[in-house]
Amino acid sequence: MSLTRLLMFGGIPEDHLKWAMQYFEEVGVDFGTHLISEGETDASMLIIVDGQLSMTTGGVELGTASKGDLVGEVALFGAGVRSANVESLTQANLLVLSRQRFLELRDTGSPVAYTIELFALDFITERLRRTNQQIARLSEGTTEGEVTMRKGIFGRLAAALGADGMGGSPVGLNKLAALQASSLFSDAPKEVLAKLAEEFTGASADPGTYVINEGDRGDDMFLIVEGAVDVIVDVDGRLVEGLATLQVGDAFGMGSLVDRTAQRMASCVTSGHCKFLMMDAFTFMRVSRVGDAVGSVLRTAMVRALAQQLAYSNGQLAMLEMTHQRATTGSFDRHRLRAAAAAMEAHGSYLNEESSPES
Question: pTM (2 decimals)?
Answer without folding.
Answer: 0.75
